[in-house]
Design goal:
With about 900 residues, the chain is mainly β. The protein has ten helices and 58 strands. β44, α9 and β45 form a beta-alpha-beta unit.
Length: about 900
């Protein structure tokens, strides 16, 4: 989440837990009794009413509906409209659609992918509802209607991000939106009436739906899955589940959507679906009506067909079957195109069959079944976890992590068919996959990397398979065994567990329809006792820019040898710990509750450990967008909110998203050019972030030479499945060997004592008279003993001695401990670095080894350590 656009509109912040006031049974406005919306409906029925208990809610990666919200649903689809309450994500106002899913079978986890949906009039002007009400509950057989009445108001995330309360112009605007759902409809029709009472203003109006980018792929008419901005106009924007779980779309019922500046900005963020009309001049006293539909269905073809039928467009039905080796392929994607332009996407059912209503005169169809190249060891139908979902759907999702559940089929390893004309009986042919069955002999987690030995035989179109157009795939083993479906061919396979074990390599031939077995032995590396591997900064679905679900993040961390995971999601306090037992990761991995506080103009700061407070929005995450006076006071507010013992860590401290960068800290002069953006109230700082240390080391060295003692850390800052996790770690010298023995108190004690090693590969051990030396102040003329431990693929060849930020000596490393006597001419700070010039193949082939220990202070005459450089100058 390094870019301003991403931070202006992040996609994944969940609201406080189920604490709203429950409305009484009778509607307070009409006196009538509202229906029980926890009841399943039959075809021909529709209902709208207030959610009275958690059984009416449903789960998903973005689920956060609460008691007191309004549910509108029929036998096919269900939507939650947020009540007037502070809550979800970065919107404290309510009134929008926050959850949407098809109606699923009892016990099947929900698949909500909508974080929130705003109606926006110009950039940053949304609706502050004065009333959210049911005006037709559907019990009379007619469509159900929910009405949201309100005034235009600024989105506080934008004004808070820019620290400019007046950035969004204040206009007197009355807004009424009616959501209407008919029986058996796939589409929720939305009609918004704008009465503009302000001065004449040109603007675009429309819907912005932030979605879970970790489980969704954006589909644009014409462009397909390739991404990028849509053409200048289009009638819809869509989203499909990464594994076919469902589809969502916003469809214009009036004029086509336009791109314009707002849509372009929003779509650069990630899977944002935004439907804006053309620029309109809103004159004083004018009234404008905007009509569109919000759909959710089992596939995109269902939604585009329903929308065309509602509009009365002439269409014809095409369909057929997808086969591989004469056997039906469930869960294949069929892309129906008009020339090279996508018209819609259908998913095949259990019999490999599909259908779609299309308008193209000569449509073609292409079937895909490659998958995304990320195979995660979870049972079939495992649900998605949302950290603020109601406890009822949350329990269903947690259970499914252990035992699985019913779910949509998703084809993997099948390749891509030839394009053929789409008719009423289209036959599409894929190549049957083979299966690589991997067994890890110690029964633990591991990463399985597979790649064609002779290159990918298929030149895939990114508009068809953006997740894996070709090349390698990774399997993420959770409990010792994993089947990986692969297209036939010869593969180089590496099974590894990050830096802590020796890898296993093999070459395997995968044959269609057959299983090839590989048993992998991962020998542990003999590191010193009392160490744990930790990744103090990573992201998953709660973060707006997280590209991986929460359960997947824990599995991939363990599979890469990480023992201590930190849930540092942007502006969230998300607790991953309840997932560990259902995932069978207890004993391999523990998790620390944390928060990456992410104001754009102040830099990003991790705070941990945090105790979640479900009575507060976002479990108590710091809501910086409500205003920051200066960074020093802001850091004090964090400590007051989280607790005085919490660790504050500067993330990627240099550059535009680090506190030292935005404070204009000059390491050459020691001058902080923007003192109001600086604070000394931090405890730790990243020195290694996703393989890079060059930009951060000078700041760390300079701070140490000026008398500061921050704890250096190494992190992946992973947002997806790879991104350096396992490769970039912090060794915690906590004196324990099992992650389950790590308490919050011991973590804080270890970090405050600077008992850490920052590593991109090796572990460097530095002692003086047999005791751990880094982070301490030594007196006299100490001699340091330096030793290095690493896996065989991590080849260290040099030990560097830095004095006050400058390399003064380099020593060849030949695999045996070396003694280094430090100079006695003056008080100084020393940092030991181990490095190598050979890439760490086959595990991390694009990186060379590097590790450092915290600075050692040397007080030569025993009268107290004097900093070699003067204190920082705050201001020019």
């Amino acid at each position: 989440m390094r870019r301003l656009l991403t931070l202006l509109l992040p996609a994944q912040l969940l609201a406080c837990n189920d604490k709203s006031t429950v409305r009484p049974g009778p509607d307070a406005d009409s006196g009538r009794s509202l229906p029980d919306v926890s009841q399943r409906l039959t075809p021909g029925q529709v209902r709208a009413g207030v959610v009275a208990d958690g059984t009416a809610l449903f789960g998903g990666s973005s689920a956060e509906g609460r008691v007191g919200d309004i549910k509108i649903y029929n036998a096919r689809v269900q939507f939650i409209v947020q009540d007037r309450r502070p809550g979800s994500y970065y919107d404290d106002l309510g009134g929008g659609v926050i959850d949407a899913d098809i109606v699923r079978e009892p016990g099947e986890p929900g698949r909500d992918m909508i974080d929130e949906l705003w109606f926006m009039m110009g950039l940053g002007r949304i609706v502050s509802p004065t009333q959210v009400e049911v005006v037709a509950d559907g019990t009379d057989g007619q469509p159900a209607v929910v009405r949201v009445t309100g005034k235009a108001a600024p989105l506080s995330l934008i004004t808070g991000t820019l620290e400019a309360p007046d950035f969004v112009d204040d206009h007197d605007v009355d807004v009424v939106t009616e959501y209407t759902l008919a029986p058996d409809a796939w589409l929720l029709r939305a009609e918004t009436t704008i009465v503009w009472n302000g001065e004449s203003t040109p603007a675009q109006a429309g819907d912005v739906s932030m979605v879970g980018m970790e489980v969704a792929e954006t589909v644009l008419p014409g462009r397909g899955l390739e991404g990028g901005s849509r053409d200048s106009t289009g009638d819809w924007v869509g989203l499909i589940g990464r594994q076919n779980q469902s589809a969502i779309g916003i469809f214009s019922d009036d004029v086509p959507f336009s791109d314009g500046a707002i849509a372009t900005v929003l779509e650069e963020v990630g899977p944002v679906i935004a439907g804006f009309g053309p620029i309109t001049t809103f004159e004083p006293g004018s009234t404008h009506i905007i009509r569109r539909s919000i759909g959710v269905g089992p596939d995109l073809a269902t939604l585009t067909g329903a929308w065309r039928a509602d509009r009365g467009e002439p269409a014809r039905t095409v369909g057929g079957q997808v086969l591989a080796g004469g056997i039906p392929v469930p869960g294949a994607r069929v892309h129906i195109r008009d020339g090279d332009a996508l018209e819609t996407i259908a998913f095949t059912d259990a019999d490999g069959r599909w259908s779609a209503d299309v308008v193209a005169e000569s449509p073609t169809a292409v079937a895909t079944g490659r998958g995304h190249g990320e195979i995660v060891d979870l049972p079939s139908g495992a649900g998605w976890i949302a950290p603020y979902a109601h406890e009822v759907p949350a329990a269903t999702a947690l259970d499914s992590l252990a035992v699985g559940a019913q779910g949509a089929p998703f084809a993997e390893g099948y390749g891509i068919s030839e394009p053929v004309p789409a008719t009423a009986d289209t036959r599409l042919t894929l190549t049957p996959p083979g299966t690589l069955r991997v067994s890890v002999r110690d029964g633990g987690p591991a990463t399985v990397h597979v790649a064609f030995t002779d290159g990918d035989p298929v030149a895939a179109d990114r508009a068809l398979v953006p997740g894996r157009p070709g090349g390698p795939a990774d399997g993420h083993v959770r409990d010792g065994d994993l089947d990986i479906p692969l297209e036939p061919g010869t593969y180089a396979v590496t099974v590894h567990r990050g830096l802590t074990h020796e890898p296993h390599e093999a070459t395997v031939a995968v044959v269609a329809g057959e299983v090839v077995e590989l048993s992998a032995t991962l020998e542990p590396v003999a590191f010193p006792a009392g160490l744990l591997t930790a990744d103090l900064h990573s992201h998953a679905s709660p973060s707006g820019d997280g590209n991986i679900p929460m359960a997947h993040r824990l599995i991939t961390q363990a599979a890469n040898g990480v023992q201590v995971h930190f849930g540092t999601d942007h502006d969230h306090v998300a607790d991953y710990r309840p997932l560990l037992a259902p995932l069978a990761l207890t004993g391999w991995l523990t998790s620390v509750v944390a928060d990456e506080v992410s104001p754009v103009l102040r830099g990003h700061t991790n705070v941990y450990p945090v105790a979640p407070d479900p009575t507060l929005p976002n479990n108590g995450a710091v809501r910086w967008w409500n205003g920051i006076e200066n960074t020093d006071a802001f850091y004090q507010d964090i400590r007051t909110a989280i607790g005085p013992e919490a660790i504050l860590q500067l993330n990627h401290p240099a550059g535009s998203s680090g506190m030292l960068g935005v404070a204009d800290y000059d390491v050459r002069s020691g001058v902080v050019g923007r003192p109001s953006h600086f604070s000394e109230r931090f405890d730790a700082m990243e020195v290694l972030n996703d393989g890079s240390y060059e930009a951060y080391m000078p700041f760390y060295m300079d701070l140490v030479a000026r008398g500061y003692q921050p704890t250096p850390t190494g992190v992946s800052d992973a947002h997806g499945y790879r991104n350096g996790q396992g490769e970039n770690i912090t060794w915690l010298a906590a004196g324990i060997d099992s992650p389950m023995d790590l308490t919050d108190a011991l973590l804080v004690e270890t970090l405050r004592a600077r008992k850490v090693v920052v590593s991109r590969g090796p572990y460097i051990d530095v002692t003086s008279q047999g005791a751990w030396a880094p982070g301490r102040t030594l007196t006299g003329a100490p001699t340091l003993r330096v030793d290095v431990t690493a896996a065989s693929f991590v080849e260290v060849d040099t030990i560097d001695l830095h004095r006050d930020g400058v390399i003064t000596e380099s020593f060849p490393w030949e695999g045996t401990p070396i003694d280094i006597r430090l100079p006695t001419d003056a008080d100084a700070s020393y940092v030991l670095v181990a490095r190598g010039s050979t890439p760490m193949a086959p595990v991390y082939a694009d990186r060379t080894p590097w590790a450092m220990a915290p600075a050692i202070r040397v007080d030569t005459d025993g009268d107290g350590w004097d900093a070699p450089l003067p204190p920082l100058v705050l201001g020019n």
